[in-house]
Amino acid sequence: MNEVFFPATPHYISKDFDGRRRVVIEQVSPELDGGKYAVKGVEGDRVAVEADIFTDGADSIRAELLFRPLGESLWQRTPMEPIGNDRWTGAFIVGAPGGYVYTIKAWIDHFKTWKSGLKKKIEAAQDVALDLKIGGALVEKGAARAEGGDAVLLAAFAVTLSGDDGEKALDAAFAVELEQLMDRNPDGSMASMYDKELPVSAEPKRAAFSSWYEFFPRSWALEPGKHGTFRECQRLLPLIAGMGFDVIYLPPIHPIGRSKRKGKNNALVAAPLDPGSCWAIGSSDGGHKAVHPELGTIDDFRVFVAEAQSEGLAVALDIAFQCSPDHPYVREHSQWFKWRPDGTVQFAENPPKRYEDILPIDFETSDWQNLWIELRSIFLFWIEQGVSIFRVDNPHTKAFPFWEWALASIRSEHPDTIFLAEAFTRPRLMERLAKAGYTQSYSYFTWRNTKHEIEEYLGELASAPLKYYMRPNFWPNTPDILHEELQTGGRPKFLIRLFLAATLSSNYGMYGPAYELCEHLPVGEGREEYLDSEKYEIKQWDIDRPGNIRAEITRINQIRKANPALQRTDNITFVRVEASAGVEHQKMICYVKRSPDDRNVILSVVNLDASSTHGGWLRFPLELFGLSHDHHFMVEDLLSGKSFNWNGEWNFVELNPHDMPAHVFRVELFL
Fold first, then answer.
1. N or C end of the chain, less CB within 10 A?
2. Over pLDDT 70: what percentage of the chain?
3. 626: which residues sit within 8 A by CB, 6+ positions away?
């Protein structure tokens, strides 16, 4: 038993306990669920940490932030500084992708306490002869702790402080050199340590800043009406890279089942030539580790990935843990599925929707360990083929413990992997997936359309605790989602949602070429699905169709890459714009983003009304930069190339959505 009992108290105290450790460390931030989950950062990130650090009485305190990569034993240290009301702050920089931990150490600095008291006594004209000798004893102990030249110098200071020459002793007491020597050789023998080592996950830079483009390879055959191949899709790569995207996302590329195959527009019965939904994975040609034969071979896919990389594009692959009735798993691992009383496997349902072409995996199977190992091996297989980014379909319908295990174990071997959670579900589920290790998360952006909705939602995402672990990825459309606003708002609305997604969030994406062609016809009234959805048929796209917004997409992606302020999400400040004196404008939304060093400042202004011109008086928050309300500065609209001189904090802006529904101003505060 490693405890001792004190008769005067009913509590057992560990033998390691030492009541002389008087500094209290609490309310550490960031800390997720008591340290169970990692705070997210990217390589090169500055991780800022705060804590309440205090002790009884008025003794001086010193505190250090300790951090190290997982697997290393030696701590790196950086000092923490008080910021008021017993709150302290410090920061450290994470290096290469991987896991890190941090904690806090704090102790009473008896030398600084002594020096502070000495100064007060001198100011009060009190005798300090004895106090100088007390200081000499403290410095003598410092000399005993020190080594080399520091030990020699501290010993000399100790002699001077304890000597009879009071004037020399006073000079020594306040010597800068003595303070530096004592700082380098502190007495941490009674230091308090925070009782947790808190985890940080450092991820690739693309985890925090990326532009995604989704397309279906099967729709890009050279011969109309045929099934496209990876080799034929290579001609798209320069076009996508030229638009400024850096991630191309492919829906599932695996063999598609024939049993219960869906027809066009999600028809329950498919015609003989209907290709089916590529999310109905698995056939006699293979399962999750196979390529659909009509797309090509594994070698063709590897060539496609290499060609994409040569264009500066990373390939993101869709991973959907579900099976067609024809999937080899259904035959070889029947215990991984739920069987109904009539001897059939339970297909997926979301009443009134029925997905007879896919079978969900049973995560309560008694063979769960082998199931987990096999599912993890799917990721590892595609990593071997050159893929490091995965968009995971409906992860909230799979067990959270599986994701925590799988993502952590994959990252331990492949720390550069990125996982995007495709989960449009309840907030707690989305948040838990982010905590469990998902790098990025789909979001509610698609359904946040009014000024109030956008400001409220970004306020949540950019504030603690969400900003520490949930990175949103804003998508104005997906193959599954055609929002009502895009159905009715015309080309201006597509531009509005583009500019919002690209400037509000550092990660954003779109399903193309439907988006740049402003495809807007729903399958039916009140439905958020595309008519003639590419999910169920091979399309033929005219990417140069008049009215496309490819030029605007290209320009906003160029702006994002050139301006660090747009490469973060949590650095947003919403700006007031008035329709008339004292009346907040509800159709115009304005927000400022700035780089960590304030050298790059971007002001975005968007007209949310796709049909009408709106103008208003915008109040730029000069006080954020320590400037007076009448400061003169310049703004350059990066979309139009026009520059304007602004005099003071209030300036008029106007936007015609049929011309350009947004300004993206680069703010030059110092002319």
1. N
2. 98
3. none
